[in-house]
Amino acid sequence: MPDLSLDADSVARTVALLRRRIDERFPDSGLGRVCRELDRITGQTRERAAWIATPILGLRVGVGALLAVIAAGLAGTVLSLHRPNQPLEVFQFVQLLESGINDVVLVGAGAFFLLTLETRVKRRRALAAIRELRAIAHIIDMHQLTKDPEWIVTPGRESALLPDRALTRFELSRYLDYCSEMLSITGKIAALYIQDFDDDVALSAVNEVENLTTGLSRKIWQKLMIVYAMGPESP
Description:
Elements: H1 8-25, H2 30-53, H3 57-80, H4 90-115, H5 117-145, H6 150-153, H7 169-192, H8 200-229
Helix pairs in contact: 1-2, 1-7, 2-5, 2-7, 3-4, 5-7, 5-8, 7-8
């Protein structure tokens, strides 16, 4: 069967190629700096995702030792119990049952805390990285906000308060297309964190990033459709 998993190296090569394309088309642009930051994050993602997918052996050994101590303590407590000489009254039996239930609940909560400790450590690191990707998606969106196709059709009077609008129709289409590609890649980078990490919280965070980047790309493609509807650019 073909391998259907995302390849972090392929994603990194795609980002590097996109960065070179942006630098060649728009040298010293803010979008190029954002893409270089995305390239840096992609390199870190490979290391972070590999760390998340690798078992933390030291933590597992420590958790196993603590669970063994808890189990030994429970076994010792059970063995130390003696049958009462006289029958228990109802009130005494209820007290004993309540105390036993409380002990079982506390021990179960402690065991659950220890067993999920590794997942929570990995989840914290994955969520921090995913928040970084969410932030860069918003930064990419900020760069395309002022790229309005209507300015090409009916340019207005330049003002010192307005951003530079010197892009041609072709350059505008390339700029918006690069933004859309960067948003799509951002979603794919987020997906690398849950590829080998089965956690519902991290999966939900990745889905939020993918929904965010898809929604932002949809806005960009609405602008691109307007640009394409203008027809070929006059020489």
